[in-house]
Design brief:
This protein has five helices and three strands, in the order ααβββααα. The protein is of the alpha+beta class. A three-stranded mixed beta sheet has the order 1-3-2. 24% of the residues are buried.
Length: 135
């Protein structure tokens, strides 16, 4: 499980947006991923949730905009697919809305978060994503 704690995210909002509007922003971000990359995604499901709830042993103040849970494509071997559950990407609505002032801000943050989490599915590290400007 890859976790990207953003414990000190400043709070500007929250910008108000319905769950359906937020889900549509996530779907739009997914549609913006080039078709050839989407075609390479394998056994991964995209979800939205209100907020990340830290687990036992995690900092209770952990704030995440998104979370990739699974086995990156770069780490899968020939036996991986035998009965493996889908990887999960979850985009968290409340933290994103909490740092946004406008609909455009939300769409931008959702897009960056979706790209960031999909990159983890392809085996790209947080460090490399920050170098590329998708941190």
């Amino acid at each position: 499980m890859q976790v990207n704690p953003l414990a000190s995210i400043p709070s500007f909002g929250p910008f108000r947006m319905t769950e359906a509007e937020f889900d549509a922003a996530v779907q739009s971000a997914m549609a913006g991923i080039p078709a050839d990359l989407r075609a390479e995604m394998n056994n991964v499901a995209i979800f939205t949730a209100d907020d990340y709830i830290p687990g036992p042993g995690e900092d209770p103040d952990t704030v995440l905009l998104g979370l990739y849970e699974g086995t990156p494509l770069t780490e899968r071997d020939s036996w991986w697919g035998a009965g493996s559950l889908p990887d999960r990407i979850t985009i968290f609505r409340e933290p994103i809305l909490g740092i946004c002032l406008s609909r455009e801000d939300v769409i931008h943050e959702v897009t960056v978060t979706v790209v960031h989490e999909i990159a983890h599915h392809f085996g790209i590290s947080d460090e490399r994503l920050h170098e590329l400007g998708w941190g």
